[in-house]
Amino acid sequence: PVTDGSRELHSLCAQLEFLLQFDLKEKRSFFGQRKDYWDFLCQGLARSRQEHEGIHFVTSLDKLKTPVGRGRAFLRYCLVHRQLAESLQLCLLDPESLCEWYYARSPFLSPKRRAEILGSLYELDCVTFHLAL
């Protein structure tokens, strides 16, 4: 199993975060706080009308104060529960939402690249992750 001490885990999480932040449009909340991929994921999963335990879990953690911290916790939660590919796929279903959140260079706006990314993420479902949440 992959644990918190794994060098590959840190590389994987950094690459996932890079993908989710790459060409992300700058958006601000009502109070001026910069939105990040966490906000994109929350909106995408809310649009799919599915209650996501990962969102509930992360929002219940009082120690997490920033969207980036919440996003990282969500990625870890999804890896442990083998839900990363499915969760991201639900967020990527709506082309209008993708254009609202990402500029044209984002790999998520290319159907071919999006399929390649999701295919790779579905392969991670075979890997066991034992991470501290």
Structural features, described:
The chain has 7 helices and 2 strands, in the order βαααααααβ. The protein has 133 residues and is mostly helical. The chain has one domain: Up-down Bundle (Methane Monooxygenase Hydroxylase, Chain G, domain 1), CATH 1.20.58.900. A two-stranded parallel sheet has the order 1-2. α2 (37-47) packs across α4 (67-80) and α3 (53-59) crosses α4.
CATH architecture: Up-down Bundle
Strand fraction band?
under 5%
Q: What is the straight-line distance between the termini? A: 15 Å
**Average pLDDT level:** 93
Number of strands: 2
Major sheet: 2 strands, parallel
Number of helices: 7
Q: Give the % helix.
A: 55-70%
Strand order of the largest sheet: 1-2
CATH superfamily: RUN domain
Overall tally of structural domains: 1
Which stretches of 5+ consecutive residues score pLDDT under 50?
none
Describe the secondary structure blueprint for this structure.
Elements: E1 2-3, H1 7-21, H2 37-47, H3 53-59, H4 67-80, H5 84-91, H6 95-101, H7 111-123, E2 129-130
Parallel strand pairs: 1-2
Helix pairs in contact: 2-4, 2-5, 3-4, 5-7
